[in-house]
Inverse folding.
């Protein structure tokens, strides 16, 4: 393209953005705007790119003109909900960002236990709206996370065993496709699209509204953490594996290895933490199960008490402030024998710094009883899901700590099962993005997603994600 053509193209973009301003309830933020640096930032501080413009939607009606502008100009489009995606898909170099983060409304239908959520809402927004009615939607573990991205990829959290993933509790969704179609997706209406939305990420359109089924939840859940020093890790993790063999669905445990932030007042040494949330009003039964674990693996420190759901859901927020740097890897597995424990504890023991954590989510329960082909989530048979995640601040640590995540992932490969959780996938580039999606979903699910992509986004407008590539692209 010569200089004249480039100038003409730039002029076309300028005119399109000027036209867009007149169609919006929200605002268009360009590089010269004082708000630009704030507007372009996403959670992962390693993702430092400069969009041509960020459109802050002021109403759901702003989605259509932004999609029209993306088609008109050919600018690459990124769609941002909460902006918490570890891979940084909520922004794009030189492109157009549709920022839905101000659309955070939540409506609760108490009688029918249905919760309707706008696309920019966070977990905290939903929890605040539902807990006053004794209800909860199964979501994640960090309250600043956006509901949209979490749900479209999966939604692993403190109610996964008792109630399944966030996407398992999705009753319906309103979607605007690449061509501007307004579609309602549910088990009854556009069921194949509904299947793909539940696990396929943002590949098929902009979801303008989510409606979830909520579950009753006590005013205070029985929650707790057992803390173990490194010399106890092998025996405690082995005991945890035995303890999980016959757990009722209501017990939701997560094992973590990390150095805790200063506000936890646990010093600078690494800890193995067995956290658990008992999702039932019968606290006595939960206490009995906790006592069984305590007898099998007495903790060095512990905290067990009924806790308000809002407090429990936000307890780890300080670990992930916006601007943290991170690269994540994940893997599903089902063995917790001596060999697996030795490998897990081996690489976990290397984490002596603040800025990297390792989580083991115990799955099964309600999650595992969902049929494999009912949603696009890749693996329902795994007993555990491993996530190695970063939250450091120093750019000089990027290479070393990203390499550690890759190393830990490689060491666990002999125990790994098929599929990966796309919400736990870090930033990849080029061909690696395509291969990561293929590997995450597995061949059969990926092919089914491609067929859906061909129908709803054949020109791959929605490609800033773990991309399902249409055959026409």
């Amino acid at each position: 393209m010569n200089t004249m053509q480039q100038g003409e193209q730039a002029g076309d973009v300028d005119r399109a953005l000027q036209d867009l301003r007149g169609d919006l309830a929200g605002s268009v933020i360009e590089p010269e705007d004082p708000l630009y640096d704030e507007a372009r930032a996403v959670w992962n501080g390693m993702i430092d790119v400069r969009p041509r413009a960020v459109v802050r939607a002021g109403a759901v009606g702003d989605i259509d003109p932004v999609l029209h502008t993306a088609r008109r100009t050919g600018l690459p489009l990124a769609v941002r909900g909460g902006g918490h995606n570890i891979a940084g898909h909520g922004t794009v170099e030189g492109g157009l960002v549709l920022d839905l983060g101000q659309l955070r409304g939540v409506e609760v239908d108490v009688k029918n236990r249905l919760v309707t959520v706008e696309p920019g809402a966070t977990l905290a927004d939903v929890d605040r709206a539902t807990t006053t009615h004794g209800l909860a939607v199964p979501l994640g573990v960090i309250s600043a996370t956006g509901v949209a991205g979490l749900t479209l990829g999966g939604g692993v959290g403190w109610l996964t065993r008792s109630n399944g993933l966030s996407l398992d509790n999705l009753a319906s969704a309103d979607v605007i496709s690449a061509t501007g179609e307004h579609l309602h997706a549910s088990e009854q209406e556009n069921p194949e699209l509904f299947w793909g939305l539940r696990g396929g990420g943002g590949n098929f359109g902009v979801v303008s509204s989510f409606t979830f089924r909520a579950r009753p939840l006590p005013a205070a859940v029985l929650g707790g953490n057992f803390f173990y020093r490194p010399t106890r890790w092998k025996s405690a993790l082995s005991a945890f594996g035995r303890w999980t063999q016959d757990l009722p669905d209501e017990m939701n445990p997560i094992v973590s290895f990390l150095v805790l932030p200063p506000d936890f007042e646990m010093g600078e040494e690494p800890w193995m933490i067995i956290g658990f949330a008992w999702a039932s009003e019968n606290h006595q039964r939960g206490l009995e199960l906790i006592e069984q674990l305590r007898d099998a693996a007495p903790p060095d420190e512990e905290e067990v008490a009924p806790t308000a759901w809002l407090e429990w859901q936000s307890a780890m927020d300080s670990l992930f402030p916006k601007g943290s740097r991170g690269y994540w890897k994940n893997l599903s597995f089902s063995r917790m024998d001596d060999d697996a424990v030795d490998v897990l504890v081996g690489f976990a023991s290397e984490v002596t710094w603040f800025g990297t954590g390792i989580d083991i989510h115990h799955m099964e329960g309600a999650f595992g009883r969902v049929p494999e082909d009912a949603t696009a989530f890749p693996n329902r048979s795994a007993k555990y899901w491993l996530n190695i995640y970063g939250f450091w601040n120093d750019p000089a640590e990027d290479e070393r700590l990203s390499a550690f995540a890759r190393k830990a992932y490689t060491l666990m490969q002999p125990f790994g099962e098929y599929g990966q959780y796309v919400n736990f996938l870090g930033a990849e580039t080029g061909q690696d993005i395509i291969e990561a999606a293929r590997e995450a979903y597995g061949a059969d699910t990926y092919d089914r997603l491609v067929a859906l992509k061909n129908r709803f986004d054949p020109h791959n407008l929605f490609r800033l994600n773990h991309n399902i590539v249409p055959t026409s692209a």
User: Anything to note?
Assistant: Residues 454 and 471 are 7 Å apart (CA to CA). The radius of gyration is 22 Å. The chain has a mean pLDDT of 94.
